[in-house]
Specification:
Layout: E1 2-6, E2 12-14, E3 17-20, H1 26-37, E4 41-45, H2 47-52, H3 62-71, E5 77-81, H4 87-100, E6 106-109, H5 111-115, H6 117-123, E7 129-131, H7 139-148, E8 157-161, E9 164-167, H8 190-193, E10 197-201, E11 203-204, H9 215-219, E12 224-225, H10 228-242, E13 246-250, H11 258-268, E14 274-279, H12 286-294, E15 297-305, H13 309-314, H14 324-333, E16 337-344, H15 351-367, E17 373-378, H16 386-391, H17 413-419, H18 436-450, H19 454-462, H20 468-478, H21 489-498, H22 506-529, H23 532-535, E18 537-538
Parallel strand pairs: 1-4, 1-5, 3-18, 5-6, 6-7, 10-13, 13-14, 14-15, 15-16, 16-17
Antiparallel strand pairs: 2-3, 7-8, 8-9, 11-12
């Protein structure tokens, strides 16, 4: 059978536009390898590539155009992977496909629909089968079942039969990840895209129970890593085949087993590769970090989630915040680039909790160089979590699009999401102790402010005693309540220029309004003339996928960046300084 697997159209907000990473989907290329090992033909369709090539536009034509592009590949079966944040896109494309070819089998999998398999099967007839959990074991039997018309013996699937929902027993979880087939990297145009760094699956599973996270609901709580021999073999293959020497090891908690990490470091150290990973701060120490750095680790993503000790307990993260600065100190001292990620918008979060999170961020801006990246995300309700079990009956919808959430493109997108909160909970929010307006304001204000860079932001913070919470709450108090909740560069500029001169230093005002306000204006003017498609840029066009300057500013002008840098734009293209300075 000819199986066309369709990647997520996962969009990230970078400043005032959407962008995306062009990377092979690791789950899909694993499934293609499984299908082809069983005599089927696998084809990978990535809509992000199509947008980057100008074949698709990020507008109301997208869903139908994607369906037509999939049909041109003449599939016998179409399989979608999807996340909650972009399920509206998957749903609409599948509906156009089914309308054009009612007899075409359409299957769907991924974390979101695995948890909500009954709701999806009951409400959306464009999907013939929902594949639950890890699909490597079930896919061959599913394809044979679709050929024969009998799915009763296929493990881990949900489907309709005679107007009833049938749910077959779950297939056993694969414990030895070395048994996975070699990923079908050749089905992605790695060389044509010009990838210099690539993602590699390192493992699956999470043993922790944070109330907001659904990872364990999909991959299970058993922590599993590929053996160091298998993992290094994949890196060696990619280096030999494509010349790639930088890798992102994909596992939310790579360092849970320090012994396994040391084994990997021993195996990879003499290769000269650079790699990055994710870790909990209480699952690393100075000795392990030094060993990782010696073996080529360049960057670590730390999920901190909240700067409030009270909220650490409530959301069951249970991270000792006394580790925060020492771990960052050690990581930076070893010349690795850390990312610290925080979340706000928990339903139990109070004003003081949010202030503590903001001030943890603010103190880091004052303490660390630009080699530290700090993220602040708005909480997204996820299925299969303790939060959705406790607060799912209170979900509310306001149409706000945050972080990775897919934009509304067709006229009925918003109505459809509002009508089905138990399926589209990612686009909803939990009403809580703080008003929704405050959470939206805080996260969007930080997005704007962070793109000033640490140098300029330090000048702003100096007028508020180094406190980010005081800065953002003052901005909120100053803002007219009739204005939109979301902060944009116009508001930042007006706040800075209209503040009483006795409350803000002349250096701070001239620094920000002199350089950045012009850049904001340039970005806004360019943005008005572009289409949504032209404003979407692949992350390969950006500096490390962020659109932000990462190299040090010219030492001759510490108060302002070189004019060839666009500090804050709606189109996040970085132009490096080419002057003699």
């Amino acid at each position: 059978m000819r199986l066309v697997l369709v990647d997520n159209l996962l969009l990230e907000q970078g400043g005032w536009t959407h962008h995306f990473d062009l990377q092979p989907h690791l789950g899909l290329i694993s499934l293609i390898a499984v299908a082809e090992a069983n005599g089927h033909q696998g084809i990978l369709y990535d809509p992000k590539l199509a947008i980057a090539r100008g074949e698709l536009a990020l507008d109301a034509s997208l869903y139908m155009a994607m369906a037509e592009a999939i049909r041109r590949r003449k599939p016998d079966v179409v399989g979608f992977t999807t996340l909650g944040c972009n399920f509206i896109c998957t749903l609409k494309v599948a509906a156009y496909l089914k309308r054009a070819d009612p007899g075409l089998p359409i299957i769907v999998g991924g974390p979101h629909v695995s948890i909500l398999h009954r709701q999806v099967t009951e409400r959306f007839p464009q999907f013939d089968v929902v594949v639950r959990g890890e699909a490597e074991a079930s896919l061959p039997r599913l394809l044979e079942g679709l050929r024969s018309g009998n799915l009763d013996e296929v493990p881990g699937v949900t489907f309709r039969h005679d107007n009833e929902i049938v749910e077959t027993p779950q297939s056993p979880q694969l414990m030895d990840l070395d048994e996975l087939p070699w990923p079908a990297f050749d089905h992605y145009p790695i060389e044509q895209v010009g990838l210099r760094a690539i993602r590699v699956e390192a493992g699956r599973g999470c043993p922790f129970d944070c109330t907001f996270c659904s990872t364990a609901s999909f991959f299970g709580r058993r922590y599993r890593l590929k053996s160091s021999r298998r993992l290094v073999a994949e890196l060696d293959f990619l280096h030999a085949q494509y010349g790639i020497s930088e890798f992102a090891l994909m596992h939310d908690l790579f360092t849970v087993s320090k012994a396994k990490v040391r084994e990997f470091c021993d195996a990879v150290e003499d290769r000269g590769y650079g790699w990055r990973c994710s870790a909990r701060m209480d699952c690393v120490d100075a000795e392990l970090l030094a060993r990782m750095r010696a073996a080529g680790c360049q960057s670590i993503y730390y999920g901190v989630e909240t700067g409030s000790r009270r909220m650490q307990k409530i959301v069951s993260k249970h991270l000792d915040l006394d580790l925060y600065e020492p771990i960052l100190d050690t990581t930076i001292a070893l010349n690795m680039r850390p990312t610290a990620s925080f979340i706000t918008g928990y339903p139990e979060e109070e004003h003081e909790d949010q202030a503590q999170t903001l001030d943890a961020i603010g103190s880091s801006i004052g303490r660390y160089p630009e080699s530290l990246t700090i993220q602040l995300h708005l909480l997204t309700p996820e299925p299969g979590t303790a939060l959705i079990d406790q607060f799912g009956d209170r979900l509310a919808y306001d149409g706000h699009i945050s972080d990775f959430n897919f934009p509304t493109l067709e006229p009925d997108d918003a109505d459809l999401m509002a009508e089905h909160p138990q399926v589209f909970m990612n686009h909803h929010y939990y009403p809580g102790a703080l008003p929704r307006r405050q959470h939206v304001f805080v996260t969007s204000a930080y997005l704007c402010l962070s793109q000033l860079g640490f140098v300029l932001l330090r000048y702003l913070l100096a007028d508020f005693g180094g406190s980010l919470s005081r800065l953002i709450f003052a901005m909120q108090d100053w803002t007219d309540p009739s204005e939109p909740d979301r902060v944009d560069p116009d508001l930042i500029e007006r706040f800075i220029t209209r503040r009483d001169s006795g409350q803000m230093t002349i250096g701070c005002r001239s620094c920000v309004t002199g350089s950045c306000a012009r850049s904001w204006s340039e970005g806004r003017n360019e943005d008005r003339s572009g289409t949504a498609a032209s404003r979407a840029r692949p992350a390969s066009c950006l500096r490390r996928g962020t659109g932000l300057p990462t190299q040090p500013w010219c030492s001759r002008a510490p108060m302002r960046p070189p004019r060839s840098w666009i500090v804050l734009r709606r189109t996040p293209i970085q132009v490096p300084c080419r002057s003699s300075c």
